[in-house]
Amino acid sequence: MKQMQSRVFLVATLLLTVLSVSRGQAASPTIRDGGTLQLGSVTYRLDSVDAPAFDQLCIDEHADSWTCGIEARDQLAKLIGGRSVHCDDLGPDPLTKKRHIGLCTVDGEKTSLNQTMVKQGFALNVEPGAKDQFKGRFGDDEASAKDARLGLWKGCFVAPHEFRVGRKDSALLGGSCRADRDREIRAALFPEDLAQPSGCSIKGKYAVRARVTGNLGIYHLQACRSYPGLTNPDRWFCSEEDAAGAGFRRAYNCRPPKSK
C-alpha cells in the first residue's frame, strides 16, 4: 500500500512539474533585444510585439540618427529591473523553431512586458509569423503611443520586421517623417556602413544564394576565412542564435574541418 501511494505521489509530482514548465517558470532573464528574452534554456519572442533589432537605427525628433534597437533593449531591461519574469509559453515561434512565443510578465506586475513595450512606443503591435496582416492584441496601445509620439513614434523609422529583411523602400513611420527628406532619411536608416554595436562582432550579409536553404542571408564569424574581407555588413549580431533567429545561416567556410 505504501509503495502504491509513493508511486501515485511521484506521478503527481512529475505532472505538476510538466504543467509548470509549459506555463513558463519565473526566473531572471537574459535580454537579447527589445522583443526577445531568455529564461533558462528557452528563448522567448514576446507575443504580438515587433521591437527593433539590436542593430536597427531610427531618426529622433531632432532629425538625428539614434540607436533605437539598443534603446528598446535597455527599456525592456529597465522594465524588468532585475526582477524575476514569468512567461506563458504559447508554442514554437513560426519564424524559427529554436525560439518560443511568450506572454511575459514581471513578478508582482499585472500588465505584461509585451503590452508595456507597445504602450511605451518601443515596439509595434503585430502577430508573430504573419506575412500579410500584422494585427496583434495591443492595437489600442500602439494607437495611444503613436498619438502621443512616444518611443519610436517621436521620430521616424521603418517597422522592425521591414528592417530585418532589408526592405529599404518600406513605409516611413513616426511623427517626424518629412516627405521632402525621404532620401536622406532612408540613407540614415539604412547606412552603407552600419555601425557595429558594442560586443556584437558577427557580420551578416543578405544573399540570394542563401534562399536555397530558406534563409535571408549568411553570417560570418571572426574565425571564418571570409570575415576580414567582408566590408559593409548589412546586419550585426551578438550571437549565432540571434543570427539564426533573424534568418541567417552560417558561412560554409566557418565550419570546422571534417574529422578523418
Concise synopsis of the structure shown:
This protein has seven helices and 13 strands.
Write a structural description.
- This protein is α+β, with helices and mostly antiparallel strands and 260 residues long.
- It folds into 2 domains: 24-189, OB fold (Dihydrolipoamide Acetyltransferase, E2P); 202-254, no CATH class.
- 27% of the residues lie in helices and 22% in strands.
- The chain contains 7 helices and 13 strands.
- The protein has helices at 2-23, 68-80, 113-119, 139-148, 160-164, 182-189, 240-245; strands at residues 30-33, 36-39, 42-46, 49-50, 58-59, 65-66, 85-93, 96-106, 124-125, 202-206, 217-220, 235-237, 248-250.
- The strands form 4 sheets. A 5-stranded mixed beta sheet has the order 1-2-3-8-7.
- A hairpin with a 5-residue loop joins β5 (58-59) and β6.
- The radius of gyration is 21 Å and the shape is globular.
- The model is unreliable at 4-23 (pLDDT under 50).
Number of helices: 7
* Number of beta-strand segments: 13
- Sheet of most strands: 5 strands, mixed
Strand arrangement within the widest β-sheet reads: 1-2-3-8-7
Terminus-to-terminus distance:
58 Å
Helix content: 25-40%
Which ranges are low-confidence, i.e. pLDDT below 50, for 5 or more consecutive residues?
4-23
Number of structurally distinct domains: 2
Note the beta-strand portion: 15-25%
Structural class: alpha+beta
Q: Round the mean pLDDT to the nearest integer and report it.
A: 86
CATH architecture assignment name of the largest domain: Beta Barrel
Bulk shape:
globular
The CATH topology annotation of the largest domain reads as OB fold (Dihydrolipoamide Acetyltransferase, E2P)
What pattern of helices and strands is seen along the backbone?
Answer: HEEEEEEHEEHEHHHEEEHE
**CA-based gyration radius:** 21 Å
CATH class identity of the largest domain: Mainly Beta
